[in-house]
Amino acid sequence: MRTIVRYALTGTSVLALTLSLTALGAAASQADSKTAGKTDSKPVKQPTLTGWASLPAGTFVPGSEPSGSLITGETNGFNVPFADQPVQGFSGIVDNGDGTFDVLSDNGYGNQANSGDFLLRIHRLAPVFAKNQVDVLGGINLRDPDSKVPWKLTREDRVLTGADFDVESIQRTPDGSYWIGEEFGPYLLHFDRTGKLLSAPIALEGVVSPETAKRTGATANLGSSKGFEGLAQSPDGRLLYSLLEGTVTGDKAGSLRFSEFDVRKEKYTGKKFRYQLEDPANAIGDAIAVDSNRFLVIERDNGQGATAKFKKIYLADKRDRDRDGAMDKTLLVDLMNVANPKGVGGFGKTFTFPFQTIEDVVILDDHTIGVLNDNNFPFSTGRSATEADNNEWITIELPKSLNADRRLLP
């Protein structure tokens, strides 16, 4: 038996209701998220698990819309289509500073063809580490009512779906609007705080994904689902840095373009940096800024469960001090080898995060980061070979301070 969890906030009133709920529970949630990031008064000697929470795979937005009618293949015990929209596939995160987080779902069920009835959405979540659970407080659907997208969308009402865009990364700028990186273009998308698209999709010059090639007749030079997996913001909010997940044809194997974007001008500056994968077969899961020069980057292999071997977070520096043409990299956390002396979450002394896709990292304070998986619902089976993965949320205390720019801390 699997428990189907649903929550009760829907429609356009969700923001007001969410704010009300947040005001009631923010102090407790904030205290919980902070205390989960500390072991005791003594500094840890290696990255150490300090919090674990889980959102069940079968969590849905009630009364939303049916979804999953185009899914084929093994669904790990879940019947399709679903009666509602699942709360799943987390691929980007924004810290609200009050114990709640805005978390982005990706395009739905893995590709353009099977995700036309999955509504793109930003969920508002609150981890409760004391209870090992995640509360879902509401969310907003992404939409294009002003017809900023110049090509035909899946739905006549212009609510955006996983067949329109594959959203994978998110930043909220000082004016409260969201910038989202996606993979079908790859494009940058600018939304207001209610989820309305504010301007036409912005392409990265010289880079074309297969989905765009099919629509426009251009030649693709990037693999499918290899667009903007990471999106970082400068401390002053004026610049974004979009990191591709895959290598552009003609570039060095395993070399990923990290491009600088001017938020005010809504155009790329022309400055590019290179992130070099440890193995060309690897991919990145997220990229966020630590300060003006340093970034946290999740790099992973494609394995899950017993085949998961390489799941790491690096500190990458765009100053390239060794002058080898790539960002300097320092290993920060091996997610397959995290100390767990207190047995947090009921796991053993060594904690592993054996998921195929790990796509969210957030800085909670100078010594603590949060990490979430993308469970690719209902397909991924990293914890059990026969059961769909839950969305897990962990906090890790670091042995050394990040010395992050204070403007990037909650």
TrEMBL record:
<keyword id="KW-0732">Signal</keyword>
<feature type="domain" description="Phytase-like">
    <location>
        <begin position="85"/>
        <end position="377"/>
    </location>
</feature>
<dbReference type="InterPro" id="IPR027372">
    <property type="entry name" value="Phytase-like_dom"/>
</dbReference>
<protein>
    <submittedName>
        <fullName>Esterase-like activity of phytase family protein</fullName>
    </submittedName>
</protein>
<dbReference type="Pfam" id="PF13449">
    <property type="entry name" value="Phytase-like"/>
</dbReference>
<feature type="signal peptide">
    <location>
        <begin position="1"/>
        <end position="31"/>
    </location>
</feature>
